[in-house]
Specification:
The chain has 249 residues and is an alpha/beta fold. The chain has a single domain, classed as Glycoside hydrolase/deacetylase (TIM Barrel, Alpha-Beta Barrel), CATH 3.20.20. The protein is built from 7 helices and 9 strands; from the N terminus they run E-E-E-H-E-H-H-E-H-E-H-E-H-E-H-E. Helix 1 packs parallel to helix 7.
């Protein structure tokens, strides 16, 4: 069960049993992910925005929920930030070790159970290096925030509860490139967030922000640099940012 939320929240699950909304109250669950591309020393994918995110969360008094990949956790440059996540009372778990692509757009499974379990063991080793036990990080986010019933079952059989961002929000689309026909600028992403709020409300949403510096985006085109403004506006509309509890209870 989702720790501190379990007593009051009416969790909404998708068809795979993955939690995609935490209820119907004016509450938001903020999740932050990151990866690290080892083949180019973190140039393409990285966790370089984590300190800025942590500073904003501390300033705003908000608890976040961090799901970096095990590869990101393993990078010495992020060790201090990972320890700060724990020390500041945020939730820390994983996003797989190697950012496995679990299924294709048609829902066809692309991995074996053994490959998922082996990947999990590598992720767990990195989390436990920071003094966490399985009970501290047993809520995780599937890689690419996508799975099917079969691959969700692989994780659930290993004792994990899965969460994923609420469908329909664009805040996780900050990886799109300006030259792409499916590019979403930070301006578009932020405007869509508030349009979604007007059309559907943000009640119970799981809101994803990447703490990643994609090289094809300038700093003002990275949504995590607008996190403080997003928190302030959501609060002005009556929303509360809630937590699942810390990894170290």
């Amino acid at each position: 069960m989702l720790l501190a939320l379990s007593a009051t929240a009416q969790l909404e699950q998708d068809s795979c049993g993955v939690v995609c909304r935490i209820g119907t109250e004016k509450q938001i669950l903020l999740v932050i992910t990151g990866h690290y591309s080892v083949d180019d020393n973190g140039y393409t994918e990285n966790f370089d925005g984590v300190e800025k995110v942590l500073d904003v969360l501390k300033d705003k008094g908000v608890k976040g929920h961090f799901f970096p990949t095990g590869i990101a956790l393993a990078q010495p440059k992020y060790e201090g930030s990972i320890r700060r996540i724990i020390a500041d009372g945020h939730y820390l778990s994983g996003h797989s070790y190697g950012h496995l692509l679990l299924c294709d757009t048609n829902g066809r499974t692309l991995v074996t159970r053994d490959s998922v379990v082996n990947d999990l063991r590598l992720m767990e080793a990195q989390l436990e290096r920071f003094g966490l036990a399985k009970t501290d990080y047993c809520i995780m986010m599937p890689p690419y925030e996508t799975c099917n019933s079969e691959t969700a079952g692989f994780y659930q059989d290993e004792g994990y509860e899965l969460i994923t961002p609420t469908w329909g929000l664009l805040t996780g689309q900050d990886w799109t490139r300006p030259e792409s026909t499916h590019y979403y600028s930070a301006d578009v992403i932020e405007k869509q967030l508030w349009q979604y709020e007007r059309d559907h409300t943000l009640n119970g949403v799981i809101l994803l922000i990447h703490a990643m510096d994609y090289p094809w985006r300038q700093p003002d085109d990275r949504p995590y640099n607008r996190l403080g403004e997003i928190i302030d506006k959501a609060r002005s509309l009556g929303y509360e940012f809630v937590g699942m509890g810390t990894s170290k209870q």
